[in-house]
């Protein structure tokens, strides 16, 4: 049995029914050729405009963190390249170079390392606005998930819980007053945390940390490309563990390769901010909670971080003038 259920000047829809009821086949017939072409074009334009509007509504609006002038993310595509060590020493060096207030935020929910590196462990206090008060050491304000859980406890959370924690760390920490820089120690990779940060807050720029090793460079490039896609400028690259200098004979050995980060910086058209050597004092200082820029501030290793901080300060100032 054929039943016409929709008809008109533009199209007709016929339905073929089974005996005893039930839908068997749908036939669309007779699309009108009398439609005005300008009307079709106008309809497409309205549809495109509507889709753009829906996309805009779907993205959260970026917020400015109160009392913070510049947010600098320190990231890497791969774990184990010294990103957290770089973030800690960079934050301390920025405070010294610019003589300003600096905060350090540990965004690695599953593997926070800032508490150990900054020699902090007490849980944060909650102020009258239900915000967490950061802990301080060496003149730096710090916040980390590691302050909220035991050091040896495993955080076993699904994505929504992680994103909720990330949002609370970002927007419910009572920074201040008047921090010139907030340095974010990012988790490795290009996942939900990175995307959430790029959508939730205004980020001044990103610093990518990598060793010269080819495998690390592959992931570092992905990190740089991710920030480019979310419209966060890459301030530059840092080559960590660039060279090992024997403390006894002075012989230099490029254990992880040579010039890899320099070549990638040229390909990406960004600056190489500095090279940090593979050095025992840097590792020991991080493990003891006495970063190298504090424990051996006049050493060549510490000077590497101070030079990087000076370049970052110049780049941020340049971005502000644009």
Task: Give the secondary structure arrangement, pairings included.
Elements: E1 2-6, E2 12-17, E3 23-29, H1 37-58, E4 68-75, H2 83-98, E5 101-106, H3 114-117, E6 125-126, E7 132-133, E8 135-137, E9 140-144, H4 159-171, E10 179-185, H5 192-200, E11 205-210, H6 214-229, E12 234-245, E13 252-253, H7 260-268, E14 272-278, H8 280-288, H9 292-295, H10 300-321
Descriptive account of the structure:
This protein has 322 residues and is of the alpha/beta class. 39% of the residues lie in helices and 24% in strands. The protein has 10 helices and 14 strands. The strands form 3 sheets. Strands 4, 5, 8, 9, 10, 11, 12, 13 and 14 form a 9-stranded mixed β-sheet that branches. Strands 1-2-3 form a 3-stranded antiparallel β-sheet, with no helix packed on it. It has a two-stranded antiparallel ribbon with strand order 6-7. Helix 2 (83-98) crosses helix 10, helix 4 (159-171) runs parallel beside helix 5 (192-200) and helix 6 runs parallel beside helix 7 (260-268). Residues 1-18 and 20-40 have low confidence and may be disordered.
């Amino acid at each position: 049995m054929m039943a016409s259920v929709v008809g008109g000047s533009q199209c007709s829809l016929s339905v073929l029914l089974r005996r005893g009821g039930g839908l068997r086949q749908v036939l669309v017939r007779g699309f009108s050729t009398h439609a005005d072409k300008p009307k079709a074009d106008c309809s497409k334009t309205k549809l495109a405009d509507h889709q753009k509007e829906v996309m805009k509504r779907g993205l959260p609006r970026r917020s400015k963190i109160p009392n913070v002038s510049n947010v600098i993310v320190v990231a890497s595509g791969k774990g184990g390249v010294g990103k957290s060590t770089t973030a800690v020493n960079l934050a301390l060096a920025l405070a010294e170079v610019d003589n300003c207030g600096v905060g350090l935020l540990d965004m690695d929910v599953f593997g926070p390392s800032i508490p150990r590196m900054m020699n902090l462990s007490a849980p944060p206090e909650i102020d009258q606005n239900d915000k967490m008060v950061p802990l301080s050491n060496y003149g730096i304000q710090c916040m980390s998930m590691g302050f909220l859980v035991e050091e040896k406890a495993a955080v076993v959370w699904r994505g929504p819980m992680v994103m909720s924690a990330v949002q609370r760390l970002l927007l419910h920490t009572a920074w201040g007053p008047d921090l010139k820089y907030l340095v974010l120690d990012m988790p490795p990779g290009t996942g939900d945390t990175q995307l959430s940060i790029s959508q939730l807050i205004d980020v001044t720029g990103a610093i990518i940390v990598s060793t010269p090793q080819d495998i690390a460079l592959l992931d570092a490039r992905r990190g740089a490309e991710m920030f480019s896609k979310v419209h966060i400028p890459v301030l530059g690259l840092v080559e960590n563990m660039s060279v090992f200098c024997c403390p006894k004979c002075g012989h230099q050995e490029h254990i992880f390769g040579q010039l890899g980060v320099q070549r990638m910086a040229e390909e990406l058209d960004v600056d190489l901010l500095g090279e940090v050597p593979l050095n025992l004092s840097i590792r020991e200082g991080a493990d003891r909670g006495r970063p190298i820029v504090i424990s051996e501030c006049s050493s060549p290793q510490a000077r590497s971080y101070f030079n990087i901080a000076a370049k970052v300060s110049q780049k941020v100032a340049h971005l502000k003038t644009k």
